[in-house]
Amino acid sequence: MEFIAHKQIGSGKEKVLVMHNWMGDSTSYDSMLPYLNTAEYTYVFVDLRGYGRSKEIKGTYSVEEASTDAIKLVDSLAWNEFHLIGHSMSGMIVQKIAVDNPARVKSVIAITPVPACGSPGPKEMMDFLESAALGNDEAAMQCINTLTSNRYTMTFAKNMVKDLRQWSTSEARLGYLNMFSYTDFSESVKGLRTPILVLFGEYDFEGSEAFMRNTFLKWYPNVQLECCKASGHYPMIETPVTLVTTIEKFLSAQRVNSMDFGNVQVKQSKIGQFKDGLGVFANREFKKGDVVIQWELKRLNEEEYEKLSEYEQENFCHRRNGIICYYPDPERHVNRSKNPNVAPDFQREANIALRDIRKGEELSISDTTQEDF
Q: Residue 51 in 3-state DSSP?
């Protein structure tokens, strides 16, 4: 099986897949490499088809193809769960990967990204970008200068264009231009609860912050928006130390929001019934009929019940035959859905697998389950 080329940096427990922009390959991140925390994170920097060390790999250059290539690669690396980082055009690709693989993607960092609706423009602009893709160096340099507010020397843009021509094909550049301009899967991402950090450059194109607010912040319920100060469209080149700090602060926060219980773990949910946004995920495979979670219920008297918050009373307590049962973690955070994979067994006081469950899959009971009786 043919995989897109990649370079691994680090050997940490947390896995991070990193994708590049239209104007560069994976080496666009090289200025960041000395500052990465390689003890806690494993970063894999990929070259998309037609770029870098994948330059000779041809394709359709679609968002579906790029997403499939990424999943094939992480499968070959035996990553069950992972974080995603995408820049500009690959900021679109990481959204596609996340929405198609919600149980596996732990978080997304989208750096000066193209949203899931694409970024089409008038014919004059598209003709200009097409000329930049096909070999017009002056047009390509103008693109770079515009996206950095014309703050750098001519050599800065000239060197970027030189590397672009050397390490990518015109076919790929044109293909990905069509991808990020005309692809629209925005309806499918609305409501996705994966934690997302969106970064825009202080000196990126005019209106970039508003563009992010009108797309990402309207679609995703668990999104953060931050400005990359003193940077334009390319913070990994312009402000690498600051970008690494921002990335790893966000990644670290996702690790804190995880609790391990052996067979299962509690972390950020992709379903999101509870206001804390947490859910329960399988740490191993289960067969139909297996006990997935053995409950450790607490029986409360009325005085103990009244001391709980109204939220805990409504969400984590149930009355059965006059007895108040209080659910601790992990069972308290099993969400409800229309496609459940576990069911409560009140006699055994356990959640039982309704079907085979994959490692990493979020657990849910039926949204029609009656727990008070």
A: strand
Structure tokens that stand for 310 in this block: 């109204």
CA 272/CA 165 separation, integer angstroms: 45
User: Residue length, the chain?
Assistant: 373
What is the block-wise mean pLDDT of the chain (373 residues), using blocks of 10 residues?
A: 91 96 98 96 98 97 98 95 97 97 91 97 96 97 97 97 97 98 96 93 94 96 95 98 96 77 86 75 95 91 86 84 87 91 92 95 90 57
Domains present along the chain, CATH in parentheses: 6-256 (3.40.50.1820), 261-366 (2.170.270.10)
- DSSP-derived letter for residue 362 is B
- Residue among 205, 228, 211 at smallest CA distance from 149: 205
**Token code pair at residue 306:** 């009244």
Report yes or no on whether pTM surpasses 0.70.
yes
What's the rounded Cα separation, in Å, for the pair 350 and 372? 16
